[in-house]
Structures are given as C-alpha cells and as structure tokens.
Amino acid sequence: MTSATPPAAPAGPAGSPGAAGGSAPAGAAGSAASRADRIGDAALDLLVERGMRGLTHRAVDERAGLPQGSTSNHARTRQALLETAVRRQVQLESQVLAPDELPAGSHEGGPIGTDTLVDALSLALHRYLTDHRALLVSRYELALEATRRPELRAFFDAAGSVFRGPLVAMTAAAGSPEPERHALSLIAWCEGLMFSCAVGSFHAAVPGRAELRTGFDELLRGMLGGGGPGRGESTGAAGDRGGRCRA
Hints:
Layout: H1 26-50, H2 57-64, H3 70-74, H4 78-96, H5 104-108, H6 114-131, H7 133-146, H8 150-160, H9 164-173, H10 179-198, H11 209-224
Helix pairs in contact: 1-2, 1-4, 1-7, 4-7, 4-8, 6-11, 7-8, 9-10
C-alpha cells in the first residue's frame, strides 16, 4: 500500500516531470514542477467533479488559474494529459499513505510483528477513507479510462506498481510463506472496502480505525496461521469506532 517515492514514470512531453532536462537552473526546475503539480491537481479535481468528459486542456487551464494554452504546452495530447493526472495521483497517494510510518523492519528486510503491520495498514487506510475520499474517485475514473486505452493501461500499471513491492516486502517480513499471494489478498480486501465506502453502498459511512484494525487483524492472522514474528495481543484498538461500513 505504501511507497517511499512515486515511480519513475514514462517520459512525458517536453516540460513534463518525465522529460525534464538536467541542465535547467534550480529555480526553473522548481517552477516547472510547481506548474506540473497545479495542472495535475486541477485535472484530478475535474475528474472528481465532472468525470472524464469534463477533463479538457482548456478546463484545466481555468481550474488551475493558468494562462490559456499552458496545459497544452505541458501536455500536448489527451494521452499526455491523462499521464500527468496519473503521475500526480500517485504522488498524492504516496503522501497520504505516509511511507515514513512503515514498520521499521520492512525497510531492512527484518521481521516485523503482525500487530505492527496491522497498526500501520489500518492507520493508512483510515486516513485515506476519512480525509482523501475524492482521491479515490479520481483513481477510479483513471482506472476505468485505462481499460479503454491500452497506452494508458501500460502507464497506469507502471505507476501503480510502486505500491505493490513494499506491501509484498511487509507481508514477507511479517512471516508470510507466500507474500505475493497474500499481498494480493490484502490489496483486494482494501480495494473492495475503499470502493464500498467511497462510491458503493456504504458511501455514507466510514469505518473507524478500530474496525479497520479488526479487519486487518482477522485477515492477516488467517493468512499467517495465527501470528507472525513478534506476535502480540490484538484486543486493543487504536482510534474510535465509527460508521457502519464493516471492515
């Protein structure tokens, strides 16, 4: 679920983060990055409010408060604009999921306790569901568009893969004999919960962190056979219970 940095995305059009030249002055590079972020943020906002049909170069210029033609200069084609949105989506998700809060052992390949992993995952998911639900909607819009655009599918998958590796490493560090398969189970469980609470039948209720912790605990202990390295008691719960969307 987490990652230290966004992926090295495929090179975009001239001026985009993927095609930045190495000789630009620091101030110019910072300005270009700032404009790219503004364009990406505006694109994601439009996807949430208007859907894919509302995402146009002109609309992004207006939403970002940029001179007309700025978005076209940054991302000349529809594909380039979508890649800019995906790139920004991954950057923001990486910030929300807080890589610095990963269990310490997962960074060095050492063992981590199941309780530690449960705490980290429940914290990240609760933060996403409570404070960044719009980010989920924009991700779903981009994912659906990727099913209709093979070139975007490849870019979307490459960008999203940055979250898979750390989760596999964490599951292995927690004692999983099949970390790839168990990571897939964790992702599927999280994706189903996020969809239900963001746009599905439980959209009006968000689970509290205690409920999420219980869900992760049941899932992980079922996969790990009752406990991984440093297994501890799981009766405690961090945070208040809330909502009716059951984890």
